Amino acid sequence: MEDSKNKNLEEFYLNSGFATRALHAGEHVGQPQHVAHSGAIYQTSTFVFQDAAEGAAIFAKEQPGYVYTRLGNPTVRLLEAKINALEGGDFKRANPDVGVYTQAFASGMGAIAAALMAVAGAGDTIIMGDVVYGATTHLADNVLKRMGIQVVEVDTSDLAKLEVVLAAHPHAKALYLETPTNPLLACTDLAVASAMAKAVNPGMLVMVDNTFATPFLQRPLEHGADVVLHSTTKYINGHGTTVGGLVTTIDEAYKNAVFTVLADVGASPSPFDCFLINQGLKTLPLRMKQHCSNAMAVALFLEAHPKVERVFYPGLESSPHRAVARKQMSDFGGMVSFELRGGVEAGRTLMDNIELFTLAVSLGCVDSLIQHPASMTHACVPREKRLAGGVTDGLVRASVGVEDEEDLLLALDKGLALV
Ligand SMILES: Cc1ncc(COP(=O)(O)O)c(C=O)c1O
């Protein structure tokens, strides 16, 4: 049936004018017959309806189908389905009656902004970790504030402090945190923090930015969180080729609110980017194992180096966050931050001279990156506030890649010798 329709179309286009042929010939040939082995790229802004009745039914949600890529697209859907299975697979097995929903976004910040705008409005309060990615703090201090949303900050890894803040704001709409945090790698006990939030207010959504851990190492839904956020720009894509974000939740009403923000604000991802992210995800477990083992080696090397003052890595025996990380993560991740004894100048010399570690922001790429939070990723946070949270002027952050371990240690050794 489809074949004969396509044959007729081909003949029709052969007999039409050049401009018509340029536009229409081949466009619909064979579409329903072929199933691509590798998720196909539906690089299209809109979708064809078989007839007007079908279009109306899809619009009315009486029938499944795609309408317009801002609202949904099969390549984007593939990514969302894969994340549902990775973030929510084990959770769903234990809770078969609870749905897991993921919405993809054009960037991590698009996802975070939509996630917060979907839960709070003028007059509402959100409790947020005091050290999170710089742009998230900037979003809270600027956009959300202008919208009339109050953001109360607290070190969520300090459960006693968190308890006090929760008790003072029982009507807060959400508790938003990162674990491990960017850039200090502090870890919050998700099970305890979630239980504390729910005890104060069962309706408070617990939202976790899981970018540093990825679902391979940590799945917040299994520890009581309601919402998981990602910048797919990082480990999920893994190759530094796209910018993207995700919101995953088990709350159906909230999922609908997030979709409404996405549809109305238009922070939708490109199908081509989602194709690349899907390709990256296929090797997430392989990459993460190598990131973790290399990062542990780098952290141990730095901790033993006479020019290094302090190392932040939750896998170190000396880390105050090791116990919490061990409890909820299967390994400690690929990010290592450190301070040199020579302060800012020493850090600058290292970043300007080190081999293999490319001087660039972002993280989670297969190759190693190095950057200076105070003047780069967290430069948009006022200095006083940044220092109060422990992000010093001398802090250096490394995203440890999957190169050979000995080459990374040699690069650090040579770089530190110049300091
Ligand atoms: C922990 C964390 N969350 C969110 C973001 C924002 O993601 P994006 O740059 O994709 O908007 C970043 C970016 O560095 C990040 O490190």
Could you characterize the architecture of this molecule?
This protein is α/β, with parallel strands linked by helices and 419 residues long. The chain has three domains: 2-59, no CATH class; 74-281, Aspartate Aminotransferase, domain 2 (3-Layer(aba) Sandwich); 284-417, Aspartate Aminotransferase, domain 1, CATH 3.90.1150. It has helices at 2-14, 18-24, 52-59, 74-94, 108-117, 134-146, 159-168, 190-200, 214-217, 252-265, 271-281, 284-303, 322-328, 343-353, 383-388, 405-417, and strands at residues 101-105, 125-129, 150-154, 174-178, 205-209, 227-231, 245-249, 308-312, 335-340, 358-359, 369-371, 395-399. The strands form two sheets. Strands 1-7-6-5-4-2-3 form a seven-stranded mixed sheet, sandwiched between helices. It has a five-stranded mixed sheet with strand order 8-9-12-11-10. α8 (190-200) links the parallel β4 (174-178) and β5 (205-209). The protein is globular, with a radius of gyration of 24 Å. The structure holds pyridoxal-5'-phosphate. Pyridoxal-5'-phosphate is lined by residues 107-109, 133, 135, 178, 182, 209, 211-212, 231, 233, 243, 245.
